[in-house]
Design goal:
Blueprint lengths: L18 E6 L11 E6 L4 E6 L7 H12 L7 E8 L5 H19 L6 E8 L6 H13 L6 H7 L8 E9 L2 E10 L12 E6 L5 H13 L16 E6 L14 H23 L7 E9 L2 H13 L1 H9 L5 H8 L12 E4 L2 E5 L2 E2 L5 H8 L3 E7 L5 E8 L3 H8 L4
Parallel strand pairs: 4-5, 8-9, 10-14
Antiparallel strand pairs: 1-2, 2-4, 3-9, 6-7, 7-8, 10-15, 11-12, 11-14, 12-13
Helix pairs in contact: 1-2, 2-3, 5-6, 7-9
């Protein structure tokens, strides 16, 4: 079970005007499970996305980039998401399958192929059963509903143990604006992007330039701050949709109150979804927040945070509730900051000062650290003592079940 997380109920997820969702069982990898999701966007909806930096990026990622880059602003009308097969490492045949998916959906919705964005998640280097996928599209269309977010959150899962969804509302220009999103991910999680799919939509009217700025801001504050195992997947995608159906005056200025309010809501949804992924990390029993401050830049703080979060020795110590905290010091020293003065570094576990002046703090007692490490949620705080910048990373422990889940992934 995930660490202190449960899926919101359907009535906690706000419908987004201009967006309808429908799911179906297409038998893409396993029979009798929801594995195909359609998002239908109102005409004029604006879409922006960020995608994996893995050079073996999946065929649907390649096609999404092409369609977003070549289409007119407001031209995207549909997203189609399959789970079970990633359609990655599949060469030209994979691209042909992704194109066939777009062509079939375009015909069904009476739009053009370039107005469709395809997404896949699941096993890498296996052929997408595109005929089964195409056969499931009419059922997705028949199920379209503004209240489909809860079903969609379940239909995009792979090794997830719970569906992940979140909503916020905010007032802009006297109008109630909805922001709702779903995501999936539990393993092969690492930033740029984490191995995940994330879809957030709002009915606010916002310019394309600001939407593209906002999707990157939201990613940097959420999905690019999480790690489970340090692996970057082939299919990672985070998409932000603005239907404009709320009727507010179009947001064009990043300094405006409207943009600030919308940004806060979008980031809050994205952060909740990202943290839910870590809480549901494969085999995770603990949720860990790593705060690194006192740096010369946010980037070097993040570098130290990830050095801690990626260390198998640190992660297994957290799983065992073993305060072998020299492992954290070793990870900090191994982060690649060549001019780091370790005598200025301080380390806290919760509110307990563990290390200072290059060694163990005089007041540190291991029994106090054992008490903190037994909790389901743990905060690690580092002060590098060399500046005023900071960053936060969210991760989880590494348990026996992580190995079991990944050993049995294709079965």
């Amino acid at each position: 079970m995930p660490v202190n997380y449960s899926t919101p109920s359907p009535d906690q997820l706000l419908p987004v005007a201009g967006i309808r969702l429908g799911v179906a069982s297409a038998g893409i990898r396993k029979a009798n499970r929801r594995d195909l999701t359609l998002l239908e966007l109102a005409p004029g909806s604006r879409v922006a996305g960020v995608f994996t930096q893995n050079r073996f990026c999946a065929a649907p990622v390649q096609l999404c980039r092409k369609h977003l880059g070549s289409g007119a602003i407001g031209s995207i009308r549909a997203l189609i998401i399959n789970t079970g097969i990633a359609n990655a490492g599949t060469g030209e045949s994979g691209l042909a399958a992704a194109r066939k998916t777009c062509t079939a959906l375009a015909s069904l919705l009476a739009i053009s192929e370039s107005q469709v964005l395809p997404f896949s998640t699941g096993v890498i280097m296996e052929a997408l059963p595109v005929d089964r996928l195409v056969a499931g599209l009419p059922a997705c269309q028949a199920a379209l509903s503004a209240d489909g977010w809860h079903d969609a959150a379940h239909a995009i899962m792979t090794t997830d143990t719970v569906a992940k969804a979140a909503s916020r509302s905010v007032n802009i220009d006297g109008r109630k604006i909805a922001v709702t999103g779903i995501s999936k991910g539990a393993g092969m999680i690492e930033p740029n992007m984490a191995t995940m799919l994330g879809f957030v939509a709002t009915d606010a009217a916002v310019s394309q330039d600001l939407l593209e700025r906002l999707v990157q801001e939201a990613a940097d504050e959420s999905f690019n701050c999480i790690t489970v195992d340090g692996d970057t997947s082939t299919n990672d995608s985070f998409v932000l949709i603005a239907s404009g159906a709320a009727g507010n005056e179009e947001i064009k200025d990043a300094a405006s109150a409207g943009y600030v309010a919308l940004s806060q809501a979008v980031v809050a949804v994205a952060r909740e979804l990202a943290q839910a992924i870590v809480r549901d990390g494969e085999g995770a029993t603990k949720f860990i927040e790593i705060k690194v401050g006192g740096g010369n830049s946010p980037e070097e703080c993040r570098q130290v945070g990830y050095a801690i979060a990626h260390s198998p020795l640190v992660k297994t110590a957290f799983f065992a509730s073993d305060p072998n905290l020299g492992r954290i010091l070793a990870a900090i020293g191994n982060a690649g900051i060549e001019d780091l003065d370790v005598t200025r570094v301080k380390l806290w576990l919760g509110d307990i000062l563990v290390s200072e002046n290059g060694g163990r703090s005089p007041g540190y007692r291991e029994e106090d650290a054992s008490r903190v490490m037994a909790a389901a949620e743990i905060i690690v705080q580092v002060d590098l003592g060399r500046g005023s910048r900071e960053s936060r990373i969210w991760t989880c422990d590494l348990s026996y079940d992580y190995v079991k889940i990944n050993a049995d992934y294709r079965s």
